[in-house]
C-alpha cells in the first residue's frame, strides 16, 4: 500500500527522514469466508453465493489469532468473500480487538443496514473499507447486482454517521476509470476520510477478465488526477487521505511529479520512498485464505505456502524453502526485463509479481502493469516491452506520449 497523501503532506511541510523501521510481523489480510452475496467481475477470491466447505471454525480462528499475536502481527484485515456473512464475525472481531490487534473490516457494504451499523460500531473496528467501483450503474455492472451501489453508499453513510473511520476502495479498470473524478468528488462531499485506488491484479476473475485492465495512458491520467486531488487536500490542511495499492510504480510516478512541481524537495522525497521500499508481498503483507492456506498476499491464491490447520503461521511465514517466498524476501528482488534494468527498483521493489507471472509464466519477469515510460525508469535505449496485446484481446496499447 502506498500512502500518497502522507508523502504529499510531508512535501508540503517537510519532516526529517527517520530510520528504516522494521515492522514486528506482517499485516495479515484474512479472508475468513469465501461466500459472498455478489459475484464481481474482477474478484480475486472467485466468490459466489454458495458455502465453501472446509473453512476454519471459530475455535480454529481463535487458535490462529493466538499464534499471530505471539508472532507480533500488528494488524488484521478481516475480509472475504463478504465477511459480514460469517455468523461469528463479531465474535472473532471482538476477540481481535480485545487482543489489541489493529482491526480492519473489508466489506462490500451491501449488508450494512442501521442494525448492522450499530453492531459494527460496538466492535470498535479501527477502519472499515467499503468498495465502490464506480457511480450508480457502473458499480452495479461491475459488481453484477442491480442496486448494489445504493446499498453500499447507504452503508458507508450509516457507518460514517456513527463515527466509524470509513474508506472507499475503488478497483480501476478501463471500464470504470472515467468515474474516478466523480468518486473523488463523492468522498469529498460525503466526508469519507479515505480513498483507496486499487490497481487490477490478474488473480481469480481478475485474471480471467484482465483484458479489461486500464491502459497505461489511462492509468497515468488517473494518477495525475489523484495526485492533484491529494495535493490540494494536503495543502489545505485537510485530513482526507488517498492511498493506492497493487502498483508500486505509483511511488516513482509521484517522484517524477515532485521533480517537476517542487524540485527542491524531490531528493528528500526520494529518500523517503527508498525507506518505504515498495512492494512487500511475502515480507510485510501476508494472507490467510478461508481454508487456512497461507499465501504471500491475497493475489497469490494459486500458490500456497502451508496451512494453519497443520502448521502454525509463525512457522510457515519465515520458511524460505519455497522458491517464490525466497525470491520475494530477497532485497533487491532478482527481477528481469524492464524491472531488472529500472533505476528505481530500490523504490518500487519490482511491483506486482503476480501480473508478471500470469502474463509471461515467469514470476520474476517485468510487471506488465508498470505504466512508466522507458525514459521515466532511466533506460537509455528503448526496450521491447512485454506486449500488452497478448492479454488485451483485440485492444492495443496506445504508445506512451512521454
Ligand atoms: C475480495 S474483496 C473482499 C471484501 C468485500 N467483499 C469487498 O468486495 O470489498 C476485497 C477487495 O479486493 C478488491 N479486489 C478483488 N479482486 C481484485 C483484483 N483482481 N485486483 C484488485 N483488487 C481486487 C475488491 O474490489 C475489494 O475492494
Ligand atoms: S470482490 Fe468482494 S463483493 Fe465482489 S465478489 Fe469478491 S468478495 Fe464479493
From TrEMBL:
Its cofactor is [4Fe-4S] cluster. GO terms for biological process: heme biosynthetic process. Keywords: 4Fe-4S, Iron, Iron-sulfur, Metal-binding, S-adenosyl-L-methionine. Pathway: Porphyrin-containing compound metabolism. Residues 22-236 form the Radical SAM core domain. One of its GO terms (molecular function) is metal ion binding. It comes from the Bacteria. SUPFAM superfamilies: Radical SAM enzymes. InterPro entries: Aldolase_TIM (IPR013785), Elp3/MiaA/NifB-like_rSAM (IPR006638), Heme_synthase-like (IPR034480), HemeD1_Synth_NirJ (IPR023992), PqqE-like (IPR017200), Radical_SAM_PqqE_MftC-like (IPR050377), rSAM (IPR007197), rSAM_sf (IPR058240). Involved in heme d1 biosynthesis. Radical SAM enzyme that catalyzes the removal of two propionate side chains from the intermediate 12,18-didecarboxysiroheme (DDSH) and may introduce the keto functions on rings A and B, yielding the heme d1 precursor dihydro-heme d1. Belongs to the radical SAM superfamily. PANTHER family: PQQA PEPTIDE CYCLASE, RADICAL SAM DOMAIN PROTEIN. This is Pre-heme d1 synthase.
